[in-house]
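Field reference: sequence -> structure
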Amino acid sequence: MNIRTALRPLAPLSLLLLVACAPAPIYKAAPGTTVAAAPAEVAHSPEQYGNGSVIWGGSVVGVHNFPDHTEMEILAYPLDSSQRPKPNAQGLGRFIAVFPGYLEAFNYPNGALVTLTGQLSGSRAGTVDQAVYTYPLVSVAQSHRWTADELRQGHPNISFGVGVGVGIH
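Structure field:
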């Protein structure tokens, strides 16, 4: 019996253990009212999505404070099963998250990863560099800025290959 045959029965158990390590989603989707479309799709026909709820996340592009609210421009990415943005994936378009009151921009530097839930509240024309762009607007109900530790959580530091190695992250 070779080692591959001996380890085969352990494969399903290993997969179960890896899945059990992944954190649960932080927000619950409201059945029937949560929009499954990406920001780029919503930007093309915002009237089709009305005031639907969204759970979107991505990378902070910029934070702009106004007298009564803060706007955060975000480059959206797909979310994993724990609703963490996957920044190595293809971007899904940009959107503007509108927060009531003041947010300290220092706490949301460019490139910080966030996930939020909120309600679509129309769209606004703007520019990305010199290109005209339509931004969906989201009135934020809840938001979460991901820390490096949270992004690593549920991603085991195990690798398989020829030989033995130890990695420290």
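Note: The beta strands are 53-65, 69-76, 94-100, 113-128, 131-145.
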